[in-house]
Amino acid sequence: MENIAIGLQEAIDELEAQLTETLNVEKAAKRACLSPFYFQRMFGALCGMTVGEYVRSRRLTLAGQELSRNREAKVIDVALKYGY
After folding, report:
1. Residues 9, 39, 31, 26: what is their CA dihedral angle, to the nearest 10 degrees?
2. Cα separation values, 6 from 1, 32, 38, 44, 55, Å
3. What is the pLDDT of residues 31-45, one digit of tens each?
4. Are 67 and 78 in contact (CB under 8 A)?
5. Which residue blocks in the chain are alpha helix, DSSP H?
6. Cα gap 3→39, rounded to integer Å
7. How far apart are CA 37 and CA 20, in angstroms?
């Protein structure tokens, strides 16, 4: 079970690195040593949400943090940065 957790953490690290880019589930699945299909199933079972839900939630959180820190930032610029 520990190997699964390590692989999942590496995949999450890959997803985190892609938050301002186009999502590439295949890259994250490769880091977890799983096929994209089984990676998404395993992610959902262990995290309680889909990969897409996780990425959207993280992007929204980061965009909100950026807007609250930098009051001069334009909403449209931040939205585009995080893929909205």
Report:
1. -130
2. 9, 8, 16, 16, 19
3. 999 999 999 999 999
4. yes
5. 2-17, 25-31, 36-47, 51-69, 75-81
6. 14
7. 23
Give me the helix-helix angle, 36-47 and 2-17, nearest 10°.
100
This prediction has a pTM of: 0.87
Residue 7 has pLDDT above 80, yes or no: yes
Cβ distance 11 to 18 under 8 Å? no
**By the 8 A CB rule, do 32 and 46 touch?**
no
> Could you count the other beta carbons within 10 Å of the beta carbon of residue 43?
24
The residue type found at 83 is G
CB atoms within 10 A of CB 15: 20
